[in-house]
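We emphasize that the prediction below concerns an isolated chain of 264 residues; any contacts that depend on oligomerization or on bound cofactors are therefore not represented. The input was used exactly as deposited, without trimming of termini.
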Amino acid sequence: MEKRLIGKIGLVTGAGSGIGRAIAVRFAKEGAIVGIHYYQNKDGAEETLETVFAAGGEGIMLQADVSVAREVDEMIATLVERYGTIDVLVNNSGIGSAYSPDRVHEIDGQDWDRVIEVNLKGYMLTAKAVLPYLIDKGKGSIINISSIRGLSGAPALASYCASKGGVVLLTKEMALDYACYGIRVNCICPGFIETEMFSRYLNRQENANLARNKFAKMALLGRIGFPEEIASVCAFLASDAASFVTGIALPVDGGYVANGVREM
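Result of the prediction step, given as a token string:
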């Protein structure tokens, strides 16, 4: 594998499982030192770190609630104190409505607030803490993980769609503000990916296997994606190979968005 991230210090939030873990491991394989953020999933973060070490990489575990500015600032300070700088931020932490249906007339207000705080405010706070270092360096890359649900709606996903749509436009706004500092800001919009979060979503459906097959058929490629396929795109956007790429919201979805109107 070509090592395009040698010498770079990266932070991946929500790296204890799924897409975040795959990104952290891919970064390590490409030569980056990786900050592995987690909030509650310490066991998962430890497994990610072990996988990074097994890949010949180096990393550090960092715990924080990304919706709390003080904790985010302390996390970034710890990473920079350890390694001297930061070059790449991947905002990946994400949740869905945990305790109530995610329709506007049914959702609990605290559920709505928590989704927005983690999925959108958390991205802003983490970027805010990282940006002074990137501005000082005159270069850097921020990659926000949104969703196809940030590009199109879906039934019973009000807070999730709202938060992920916000991520898309936050990305574009930040690309406008920080290009003058040599900082690139991009967004990846994954489709249906084999993660723990997707499995939990399937298990809430009346027939999980039927739902899986339907979602697979909605993609032009006729299958569910893998976290490693998101990680490979993320590594490209983090690298100098993407030096002329900023402000995009890139679907990585097997052709789901291009498929237009779909049976739900």
